């Protein structure tokens, strides 16, 4: 529900048209001692849900299977071959300025967001030498798109004249859920083909968005691609430049947030696996492992539960909990699919990468490499190691790898391509390397929107959160995780008559009346 403009708090960014959503009215806090809630999953969604509940007087247990918080943005210590300690993670994440609710979560412990550092550019490079940059692109639509096209060498006049403008009309007025009703039945690849979008520009712009979902454009729903275009280009005035944590994720983000939750009275339990959730007359019984306990499994009772898990974790818990949901809901959970595997390879090299290299570079045509990060150009821990050794810390990503691919071969090809991308790395000695192969990101396939679960379930005190969960807000990726986490908390708070938390999003449709009218004509 949108908040009346006369009662708006301060905007979270520069976009005057950002949309503010309010939760149901109610008391400020739950009556002491407060109801109890288990939040299952300590990623961004779970941290947001736990924060939203604990701030309103709910007794929260945050239960995370891994040893660290942060989910797909977690980090953990590792010892390198030279004896130094470093923090490994699952790879680079961009904290875009339109991630209003994620940034609101981080502001709980860092009001000025001093833990984030801006990257001055988001360059994209093709193997044939062509490239693009967002450094000088205007941020406010429609000038952002017009500026990008004017400045980009990837757009030629002949390519633009061959485009099908009628097929592109859905881009001009993106709304949720209408965008799914209109475009979820076709792939991102077909949508691009129908537009006749220039191939070179497609590689550098649209496919970057598609592969942010760790998915091939031929499998990804066109609705998700178009929603991304709205969030970053035609819908928001925040632009495509972004921030990154100045230190590894645990130190910069999640450890302070865990301390904040503990200060609110919440209990944070890592290394704890939730096995099953059983509805009972007075709430839920939750079976979980107990690290170090001779009994192995413990059962606790809660008034409410938030399941903030990835697809595999959600399928496991629901599959072991026959009392949750009806047959249709359970079938939808069981049908959730994972995106193809991805690889993150981080190299500690004995020589520096040239100072002018960007902190982050998107690539196309360099074998399996989708992007390259030079961590010591923006992360403090990596920079200190580089200064002490005269080396560099470089990270390579490969998204949507063929599940049948030889993993050692992919790793070898990644390192070989690094020498093509940054020739100064050729012949460098690898001081140490970490390869992270994962396959736990949600796939948003063609026609899959209706099977996705929503935040609310048939049980008013069981909610879901995560980037796989449906929401009416135009959000994606980490911002969808944070947003649905707060929505899950708000839904539970409303059952106790407690006022929830306001949320923000990019505008809900096209920004320009003429463009909206054109979109309706399509």
Structural account:
- The protein has 522 residues and is an alpha+beta fold.
- Among the domains are: 5-71 and 249-336 and 452-505, FAD/NAD(P)-binding domain, CATH 3.50.50; 134-240.
- The chain contains 16 helices and 22 strands.
- It has helices spanning 44-54, 100-107, 143-151, 157-161, 178-183, 188-195, 199-204, 206-212, 222-234, 249-263, 311-319, 327-334, 380-389, 407-421, 477-495, 513-521, and strands spanning 19-21, 36-40, 59-63, 75-79, 85-89, 95-96, 116-118, 124-126, 131-132, 242-245, 267-269, 274-280, 283-289, 297-302, 304-307, 342-349, 360-366, 369-374, 392-398, 430-438, 462-464, 503-505.
- A 7-stranded mixed β-sheet has the order 9-8-17-18-19-16-20. A 5-stranded parallel β-sheet has the order 11-3-2-15-21. Strands 6-10-7 form a 3-stranded antiparallel β-sheet.
- The longest helix is centred in the C-terminal third of the chain and has 19 residues, at 477-495.
- It is globular.
- It starts with 18 loop residues before the first strand and ends with a helix.
